[in-house]
Write a structure and sequence with these properties.
By secondary structure, the chain is an alpha/beta fold. It is built from 9 helices and 14 strands. Helix 8 packs parallel to helix 9.
């Protein structure tokens, strides 16, 4: 199993997960043309996809989903609440996904995990294949016991480090937006991300990718300073970029 990012941040998000049997796309916040370009950079095309999975309906995650699904005739898995976006639920591409219930997509065991975020019925994902586990965890404002349990033992983790608390407080956002981003239904700050790792079995982690970093309210250096002390192997730590994403990472 391996994974890569087409891009990560407020301007668009998309992640690829691939096994020797299947390839899926998680979220698509880019246009069809941009998605095709970014996939080609990773040696893949939308024709390689078995399905698109959607975490929630915010535009930086979903705006390219239905156009891509229509063009390439792909099933789209998301919750009922997320399916309300743009009448996605009325499309024949839509497949209902019950949060907390494992499903099989191309031989990959997929668990949609409910998270606190300001969306209709948001989730994140844990993927299992041949006794290896990949956790994708972004776009949540707080870490619940339910989330901690599902992400306690991963072999690789894509983890939101959206903002530094001090930078957000002193930054250019209006007060209402600061409250939203920093609230329990917003986005994880660096210390929250670190606290998840503090209670996880970090010895299993081959890769930890810091994702969804705010360009205005965080820096890779600040995120690394918070996360690195929590890890058994600091060489496992990488950062996702808005433009470049990151290249394929193999889970051995």
């Amino acid at each position: 199993m391996r994974f890569a990012s087409l891009g990560s941040g407020s301007k668009g998000n998309a992640t690829l997960l691939e096994t020797d049997q299947s390839c899926v796309l998680i979220d698509c916040g880019f246009t069809i043309k941009e998605t095709e370009r970014r996939m080609a950079r990773l040696g893949r095309s939308p024709t390689d996809l078995a399905a698109i999975l959607v975490t929630h309906e915010h535009s930086d995650h979903i705006k390219g989903v239905l156009p891509l699904a229509r063009k390439y005739k792909l099933p789209v898995y998301c919750s009922y609440g997320t399916g309300e976006y743009g009448q996605l639920r009325l499309s024949h591409h839509w497949r209902n996904m019950e949060l907390g219930q494992e499903l099989d997509i191309g031989g990959i065991a997929v668990t949609p995990v409910a998270v606190p975020h300001d969306a209709r019925e948001p989730c994140q994902f844990v993927f299992r294949y041949q006794k290896k586990t990949f956790g994708l965890l972004t776009d949540l404002g707080s870490i619940t016991p339910f989330v901690r349990e599902h992400y306690r033992r991963c072999d690789a983790l894509l983890l939101e480090c959206n903002h530094d608390v001090t930078m957000l407080a002193n930054g250019p956002y209006p007060y209402s937006l600061k409250q939203r981003v920093g609230g329990d239904w917003g986005h994880l700050n660096n210390q929250q991300a670190a606290s998840l790792l503090a209670e996880a079995e970090v010895g299993h982690l081959q890769h930890v990718v810091m994702a969804h970093l705010s360009e205005q309210n965080n820096t890779p250096a600040l995120a690394r300073a918070a996360i690195e002390p929590m890890l058994a192997n600091s060489d496992a730590l990488l950062s996702a970029d808005q433009e470049a994403g990151f290249d394929w990472l193999e889970i051995a």
